[in-house]
């Protein structure tokens, strides 16, 4: 279906900035995670984008809690270090917003021109978005612009101004302005669509397991039909290990990032795998339609730092009785030599799904 809309219309661009932006051929995707800050640098000069460099820098615990920046100085310092590690000194980066304050809805409206739709969409949004219209930035994309049906499908996006403003403040603290602000689920999906074309038919689930949150996306014949956040992440696994086995945080982390399973980890896997499986089942049940039911659910693709937890994919697969595989943003993506210098490419690639998705949008 091509790219989703981004919220970049809400990034005011001065006329002279537009002049400069024409020369910008490199996009920098910045994923400000609660566990790791990740950067992906993409060269857009060629016919196909090329991943030039990635970097990741761990964040001190509790600098970001439930998506909220608690310590702006710590976060901006980590952002600066991540950019430095990636060998870039950008002033503009692509960043993402997500969570409860972003609403994405597919709606059907009478077919009209895009210019006309722009006027109508505010009124339409009032019927579909449970926020005060004055408090949100709106964007939309007509999904079937060439269609001939009386009604057209429109993807409506509303994000709270305050959410975008706070993202801008975090960037400003690090001396940055947004080249664009994307919705996290769109950026994740754009990277996934590119790297896993085999997942574009049938019903599949995309599970992006982060430090605090897991982002679930259900995809029906290549269309993302549902996204939601599950409150499980690698932090929970670590806390389980510390509590149940008396491990120090550092020891627990080592088990989570190990290449082999361990008895301690196996003991906590089942209950967390259950939580993830129930999250997927509930998502599918919510969506339940002619096309989507538990019976029709195919492969589950897993990315994010949690995808690396030894034994987790097998546990979810055993529980759901579905194939569960690792997703990586690198398939079908040109990779410059040394892009993952200092990192174990295969091990960390799934962590860069969002950063790569952000950097895939060509700069204007
Ligand atoms: N090589 C690695 N280095 C550091 N952490 C790793 C590594 N491999 C796996 N991890 C795990 O990945 C976690 C971070 O995953 P990820 O970067 O996807 O989360 P995040 O984006 O920071 O979190 P969230 O999206 O929930 O805010 C770490 O907390 C750690 O447990
Ligand atoms: Mg994340």
Offer a concise description of the structure.
By secondary structure, the chain is α/β, with parallel strands linked by helices. The protein is 35% helix and 28% strand. It contains 11 helices and 16 strands.
Q: Can you give a write-up of this model?
A:
- The strands form 5 sheets. Strands 13-12-11-14-15 form a 5-stranded mixed beta sheet, with helices on both faces. The chain has a 4-stranded mixed beta sheet with strand order 1-2-3-16. A 3-stranded antiparallel beta sheet has the order 7-9-8.
- Helix content is 35%, strand content 28%.
- α5 packs across α11, α6 crosses α7 (249-256) and α8 (263-287) packs across α9.
- It has helices at residues 15-23, 72-85, 114-128, 161-173, 184-195, 234-245, 249-256, 263-287, 312-320, 345-348, 353-359; strands at 26-32, 36-43, 50-58, 64-65, 68-69, 92-97, 102-110, 136-142, 151-160, 177-183, 203-209, 214-220, 223-230, 297-303, 324-326, 334-335.
- The protein has 364 residues and is α/β, with parallel strands linked by helices.
- The longest helix is centred in the last third of the chain and has 25 residues, at 263-287.
- The protein binds adenosine-5'-triphosphate and magnesium ion.
- Residues 33-36, 210-213, 233-234, 253, 256-257, 304-305, 308, 347-348, 351 line the site of adenosine-5'-triphosphate.
């Amino acid at each position: 279906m091509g790219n989703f809309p981004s919220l970049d219309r809400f990034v005011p661009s001065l006329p002279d900035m537009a002049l400069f932006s024409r020369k910008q051929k490199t996009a920098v995707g910045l994923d400000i995670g609660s566990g790791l800050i990740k950067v992906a640098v993409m060269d857009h000069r060629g016919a196909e984008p090329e991943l030039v460099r990635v970097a990741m820098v761990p964040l001190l615990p509790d600098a970001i809690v439930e998506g909220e920046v608690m310590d702006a100085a710590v976060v901006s310092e980590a952002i600066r270090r991540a950019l430095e590690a990636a060998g870039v000194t950008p002033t503009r980066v692509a960043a993402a917003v997500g969570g409860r304050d972003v609403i994405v809805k597919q709606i059907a409206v009478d077919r009209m021109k895009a210019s006309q739709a722009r006027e109508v969409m505010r009124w339409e949004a009032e019927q579909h978005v449970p926020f005060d219209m004055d408090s949100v930035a709106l964007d939309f994309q007509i999904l079937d612009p060439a269609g001939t049906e009386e009604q057209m499908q429109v993807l409506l996006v509303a994000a709270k101004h305050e959410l975008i403003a706070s993202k801008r403040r975090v960037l400003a603290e690090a001396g940055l302005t947004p080249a664009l602000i994307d919705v996290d689920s769109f950026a994740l999906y754009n990277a996934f669509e590119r790297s896993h074309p085999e997942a574009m038919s049938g019903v599949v689930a995309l599970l992006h397991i982060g430090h605090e949150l897991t982002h679930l996306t259900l995809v029906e014949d290549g269309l993302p039909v549902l996204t939601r956040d599950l409150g499980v992440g690698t932090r929970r696994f670590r806390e389980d290990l510390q509590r149940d086995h008396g491990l120090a945080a550092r020891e627990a982390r080592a088990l989570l990032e190990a290449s082999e399973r361990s008895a301690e980890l196996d003991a906590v896997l089942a209950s967390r795998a259950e939580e993830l499986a129930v999250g997927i089942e509930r998502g599918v049940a919510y969506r339940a339609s002619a096309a989507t039911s538990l019976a029709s659910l195919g492969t589950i693709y897993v990315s994010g730092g949690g995808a690396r937890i030894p034994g987790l994919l097998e546990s979810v697969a055993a529980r759901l009785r579905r194939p569960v595989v690792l997703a990586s943003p690198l398939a079908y993506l040109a990779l410059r030599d040394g892009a993952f210098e200092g990192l174990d490419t295969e091990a960390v690639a799934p962590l860069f799904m969002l950063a790569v998705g952000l950097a895939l949008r060509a700069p204007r």
